[in-house]
Design goal:
The protein has 103 residues and is mainly β. It has one domain (7-101): Sandwich (Immunoglobulin-like). It has one helix spanning 51-55, and strands at 7-9, 20-25, 34-39, 42-43, 60-62, 69-71, 80-87, 94-95, 99-101. The strands form two sheets. Strands 3, 4, 7, 8 and 9 form a five-stranded antiparallel β-sheet that branches. A four-stranded antiparallel β-sheet has the order 1-2-6-5, with no helix packed on it. The termini are far apart. Keywords: Cell junction, Cell membrane, Disulfide bond, Immunoglobulin domain, Membrane, Signal, Tight junction, Transmembrane, Transmembrane helix. InterPro entries: Ig-like_dom, Ig-like_dom_sf, Ig-like_fold, Ig_sub, Ig_sub2, JAM2.
Length: 103
Amino acid sequence: VAPTTPVCEVPSSAMTGTVVQMSCKEAEGSPPSEYQWYKNGVALLEKTGTGSARAANITYIMNKISGTLLFNTVTKNDTGEYFCEASNGIGLSQKCSVKRMQV
């Protein structure tokens, strides 16, 4: 079963240095969907603890299975427009509407 449009939860504003968790979920897809977050239209890298992720100064943890995007301490650089995409290899992937977070 192809995924339906996921529901994204993105805070509209956050204080610098606080913990922010965004979530993305859809319930229809079978097999279960994987989730990819985007910021300003660019796919976010999955942080795997490799050198490249640290070199890119990544301040978040993205979980493609649960659909969460967790910032342990947000900075002004994390301000932007976020959306997520659900895909399970069947039918078209589905995106939620873009939501802006201001830090």
